[in-house]
Design a protein that fits this description.
The structure holds 2 protein chains of 2 kinds. Chain A is 75% helix and 3% strand. Chain A is mainly α. In chain A, helix 9 runs antiparallel to helix 11. The N and C termini of chain B lie far apart (139 Å). In chain B, 35% of the residues are buried. Classes of the chains: A mainly alpha, B mainly alpha. At the A-B interface, helix 7, helix 8, helix 9, helix 10 and helix 11 of A face helix 1, helix 2 and helix 3 of B. Chain A: One of its GO terms (cellular component) is membrane. Chain A: Keywords: Chromophore, Membrane, Photoreceptor protein, Receptor, Retinal protein, Sensory transduction, Transmembrane, Transmembrane helix. Chain A: Belongs to the archaeal/bacterial/fungal opsin family.
C-alpha cells in the first residue's frame, strides 16, 4: 500500500473528526431540540466513517480479490453510514417511519450488492453492479419523487431537506462511475488513484452533510421565535474542516 | 478566521475550488495517470456542485417559494437562514422587506379604517347638523307665531282696547318675559288711567259741589248784602275755570290714548326701553311734584277757609256784644218806663207820659235790634255751614290728590321694574315717555288752573271780608243771632271731630271709577 493512500485516509479521518465536532456542538446547543433533530444518529455518520478510515489507514481489514486489494472497512462504513445519510434526509422531509426504514434498507442492500459485485469475478461482477445501480436509481426516485411530497408539509425543514437531497443525490452519482473506472471494474484508474478519489468523496459526502444540518439547525429550534438567534451561535466551520482535510 | 469566510459566499467558493484543485493535483502527481486525474477532476466537480451549488439552489428555491407566498399576501411567513453570507443577508433583507410591507399594509389598513371611521363620524355630524337645523327652524316658527300673536294683542291695545291681555307663551323664556311684562304694563296703565279717571270725577264732583255751595252762598249773601253779587260773578268765573280744567283733563285723556297708540311699535322697536322708562320715571316724578304742589295749594285753601271761619267767630262775638247792649238798652227802657210811671203818679203827668212814650220807643228799638241781631246770627250760621262744607270738599280733594300721588308712585315703581326686565322694548317706552311728557304738561296746566281756583278763593275771601264789613255796619241786627252762635261753635267742633274721623275712613275708601269722557263733556 502506497504512502499516498495512507496520507489520504489520514486526512479524511481528520476531516471526518471535524464532522464529529460539529455534531457534538449541535448536541450541546440548548437553542435546538436535539431529540427532535435526532442528532444522536448524525454522530454515527462522521464518527463511524472516521473510525473506518483510521482502521483503513492502519491497513486493517484489507483483503486481496483477483489481485485487487479490497478494504472491507470501506464497505462496512458505507453499509452503516450511507443508509443513515439517505434515511436522515427522509426524516428531515418528514417521511413516515416505513419510508425512512425502507430507503435505509434499500441503500444497505445497494452497498451489500456492490460489495458482492466487487468480490465476484466475471459476469457476476457486472450483474451485481447492474443490480446495485438499479437500486441506486430506486433510491434517487424515492429521494426526488417520494420525499418531496412529505417535505412540502414541513415548511421549516424544507430548505434543509432540499440541501441534503441534492447533496446526496448529486454526489453519489460519482460512486458508480469511480467503481467502473476502478481496478474492480474496467481498471482505467489505478488502485491508488481510486483510493484517493474515494477518500476525497467520502469526506465531502459526510462532513459537509452534518455542517448543512448545523447551518440549518434553526429547523429544530426549541422555540421557533428564537430560531434566528440559534443561527448566530459560534461553531466550527465546515470550510475549515475542508481546508484541514486537504 | 471563520467569520469572514462565513460572511462571504465568494471566499467559500474559492476555498472549495482550492481544496478540490489541490485534491486533483495530488491525484495527478501521485498516480501520474491522466485517467485517474480526469476521474478525480470529474468527481471534484460533482463534489463542488453538490456542496456549493445544491446549497445555493436550495436557498434560491426556498427564497422563491417564500417570496411567492409573500407576493400572494402571506406576510406572516418567517424568513430565516443560518447562513451569514450574501444569501443570509438576502434572506434578512427580504425579511425586512416583508416586515416593512406588513407594517405598511397594516398602516394602510389602519388608515383605511380611520378614514372609514372619519366618514362615519362626518355622516353622524351631518345628521346632527340636519337635526339641529330642523330644530332651529321649528323654534323660529314657534317664535314667529308667538310674536304674531303678541303683535295682534299689541295692535288691539294700540287701537285703545286697554283690557287686551296677551296669552303668555310659557315655552320660551324671552317671549314669556315680554308677554308678562306687556300684561303688567297694561295692568299698570289701566289702573293708572282708572285712578286718574276717578280722580277727575272726584274733582268734578267736588267742583260741582263747590259751585253749588257757592251758588247757595251767593244767593244767601245776595239776600244779606249787595256785595255778594261779586261773589256770584267770581263763582261763575270759577266754574268756567273748572270747565277749562275738565278740558285739560280731556287733553290728558287724549295724551293717554296717544300713549296707547305708541305701543304699536313696542314689538319691533324696543331698543331703548330703559332710557325711555327713565324719562317716563322723570316725567312721573314731575307729575308727583305737581300733585304735591296741588296738595300744598289745597292746604292753603283750607287754611284760608279756616281763617274765614275765624272771621265769622269774630262776627259772632260782635253780635254777642250787640245783644248785650240790646239787653241793657231794654233794661234801661224798662227802668225808664217804671221811672216814668212813678213820675206820672207823683207830679206832672205829661212829663211822665212823655217819658213813658220815649221808654216804649227805646224798648221797641231794642227789641228790633235784637231781632236784627238774631237774623244776622242766623245768616252767619248759614255762611259758616257753607264754609265748613267747602273746607270738607277741599280736604277731600287733598286726600284724593295724595292717593293719586301714591298711585303714580306705584306706577313709577312698576315702570322701574319694566326698565330692568325689558330693555328690548326701549324705543316704545321712549314714545310712551314723550306721551307721558304731554300728560305731565297737561297736569301742569291743571295745576295752573287750580292755582286760579285758589286765587278765586282768595277773592271769595275778600268778598267775605266785605260781607263781614257790611254785616259789621249792621251789628245791631247781628245782636239777634248771638244766641245761635254758641251752638254753631259746638257744631263746628263736632264737625272737626267728624272730619278727622271721616278722613281716616276716606283712606280706606276706594276711588269710584268715573268715565273720563263724561268729565270732558261736562
Amino acid at each position: 500500500m502506497s504512502t499516498a493512500i495512507t496520507v489520504s485516509y489520514s486526512i479524511s479521518a481528520v476531516g471526518l473528526l471535524v464532522g464529529v465536532g460539529i455534531v457534538f456542538a449541535l448536541m450541546r446547543s440548548d437553542r435546538v431540540d436535539a431529540e427532535r433533530g435526532k442528532f444522536a444518529w448524525l454522530f454515527i455518520i462522521p464518527g463511524f466513517a472516521a473510525l473506518s478510515y483510521i482502521l483503513m489507514a492502519a491497513e486493517i481489514g484489507v483483503i486481496t480479490v483477483n489481485g485487487n486489494e479490497v478494504y472491507l472497512f470501506r464497505y462496512i462504513d458505507w453499509v452503516v453510514t450511507t443508509p443513515l445519510l439517505v434515511g436522515y434526509a427522509g426524516y428531515v422531509a418528514g417521511a413516515p417511519r416505513k419510508w425512512v426504514l425502507g430507503v435505509a434498507a434499500a441503500d444497505a442492500m445497494m452497498i451489500i450488492i456492490g460489495l458482492g459485485a466487487t468480490l465476484s469475478t466475471g459476469i457476476a461482477t457486472w450483474v451485481g453492479f447492474g443490480v446495485s445501480a438499479g437500486v441506486h436509481l430506486v433510491l434517487l426516485a424515492i429521494l426526488y419523487l417520494v420525499f418531496p411530497m412529505f417535505a412540502r408539509e414541513h415548511r421549516e425543514r424544507y430548505r434543509l431537506f432540499k440541501i441534503l437531497q441534492n447533496h446526496v443525490g448529486l454526489l453519489w452519482i460519482a460512486y458508480p462511475v469511480i467503481w467502473i473506472t476502478s481496478p474492480a471494474g474496467l481498471g482505467y484508474v489505478s488502485a491508488v488513484g481510486t483510493a484517493m478519489i474515494i477518500a476525497y468523496l467520502d469526506l465531502v459526502a459526510k462532513t459537509p452533510y452534518v455542517y448543512f444540518v448545523w447551518t440549518e439547525r434553526a429547523s429544530f429550534a426549541v422555540d421557533p421565535v428564537d430560531a434566528d438567534d440559534a443561527g448566530t451561535e459560534e461553531t466550527i466551520d465546515a470550510d475549515d474542516v475542508a481546508a484541514a482535510a486537504d | 478566521m471563520s467569520n469572514p469566510i462565513r460572511r462571504s459566499y465568494g471566499i467559500k467558493l474559492i476555498l472549495g475550488y482550492a481544496i478540490t484543485g489541490s485534491a486533483v493535483t495530488a491525484v495527478g502527481i501521485v498516480t501520474g495517470d491522466a485517467a485517474a486525474t480526469i476521474v478525480m477532476t470529474w468527481a471534484g466537480l460533482l463534489a463542488l456542485g453538490s456542496v456549493t451549488g445544491t446549497n445555493t439552489i436550495a436557498s434560491i428555491v426556498e427564497l422563491e417559494r417564500r417570496a411567492k407566498s409573500i407576493a400572494d399576501g402571506d406576510l406572516d411567513t418567517d424568513l430565516r437562514s443560518g447562513r451569514k453570507d450574501e444569501f443570509g443577508r438576502l434572506y434578512e433583507t427580504i425579511d425586512v422587506m416583508r416586515n416593512s410591507l406588513s407594517e405598511q399594509i397594516e398602516s394602510v389598513e389602519q388608515a383605511r379604517a380611520e378614514a372609514q371611521e372619519e366618514q362615519e363620524r362626518a355622516e353622524q355630524a351631518r345628521r346632527e347638523a340636519e337635526r339641529a337645523e330642523q330644530e332651529a327652524t321649528e323654534l323660529a316658527e314657534a317664535y314667529r307665531q308667538t310674536a304674531q300673536r303678541y303683535a295682534q294683542a299689541m295692535q288691539q291695545a294700540a287701537d285703545g282696547d286697554l283690557s287686551t291681555r296677551i296669552d303668555v307663551d310659557t315655552e320660551h323664556d324671552a317671549m314669556e318675559t315680554i308677554g308678562r311684562e306687556f300684561n303688567n304694563t297694561m295692568d299698570d296703565l289701566e289702573e293708572a288711567l282708572s285712578a286718574v279717571n276717578a280722580f277727575a270725577g272726584d274733582i268734578q264732583r267736588d267742583a260741582d259741589e263747590l259751585v253749588r255751595l257757592t251758588d247757595e252762598a251767593e244767593s244767601t249773601v245776595d239776600q244779606a248784602v249787595e256785595t255778594t253779587g261779586d261773589i256770584a260773578a267770581d263763582s261763575k268765573e270759577q266754574r268756567e275755570r273748572l270747565e277749562a280744567v275738565a278740558q285739560d283733563i280731556d287733553d290728558m285723556s287724549a295724551a293717554a290714548q296717544q300713549i296707547a297708540a305708541t305701543t304699536d311699535d313696542l314689538s319691533s322697536t324696543s331698543d331703548s326701553a330703559t332710557a325711555a322708562s327713565r324719562e317716563a320715571r322723570d316725567a312721573a316724578n314731575e307729575a308727583i311734584d305737581e300733585m304735591e304742589a296741588i296738595e300744598r295749594e289745597t292746604a292753603e285753601a283750607v287754611e284760608q277757609i279756616e281763617s274765614l271761619t275765624d272771621s265769622t267767630e269774630e262776627i259772632t262775638e260782635i253780635v254777642e256784644v250787640i245783644n248785650e247792649i240790646a239787653d241793657q238798652t231794654n233794661m234801661l227802657a224798662l227802668n225808664a218806663s217804671i221811672e216814668a210811671a212813678r213820675a206820672g203818679g207823683g207830679g206832672g203827668s205829661d212829663a211822665g207820659d212823655g217819658f213813658a212814650v220815649v221808654a216804649d220807643e227805646v224798648k221797641s228799638l231794642a227789641e228790633e235790634t235784637r231781632e236784627r241781631a238774631e237774623e244776622i246770627s242766623r245768616m252767619v250760621a248759614e255762611v259758616r255751614e257753607e264754609t265748613a262744607d267747602a273746607a270738607e270738599s277741599v280736604r277731600s280733594t287733598r286726600t284724593r290728590v295724595e292717593r293719586g300721588t301714591d298711585t303714580v308712585e306705584s306706577a313709577l315703581r312698576e315702570i322701574d321694574a319694566i326698565a330692568d326686565a325689558t330693555e328690548e322694548i326701549d324705543e316704545g317706552i321712549a314714545e310712551i315717555s314723550g306721551a307721558t311728557a304731554d300728560q305731565a304738561d297737561t297736569v301742569q296746566t291743571t295745576a295752573a288752573a287750580i292755582d286760579e281756583v285758589s286765587e278765586i278763593s282768595r277773592e271769595a275771601e275778600a268778598t267775605a271780608g266785605t260781607v263781614a264789613d257790611s254785616i259789621e255796619s249792621q251789628r245791631d241786627r247781628f245782636e239777634a243771632i248771638a244766641s245761635t252762635l254758641d251752638e254753631f261753635e259746638r257744631n263746628a267742633e263736632d264737625l272737626v271731630a267728624e272730619l278727622s274721623r271721616f278722613r281716616i275712613e276716606n283712606h280706606g275708601r276706594t276711588a269710584n271709577s268715573t268715565a273720563l269722557s263724561d268729565g270732558g263733556e261736562r
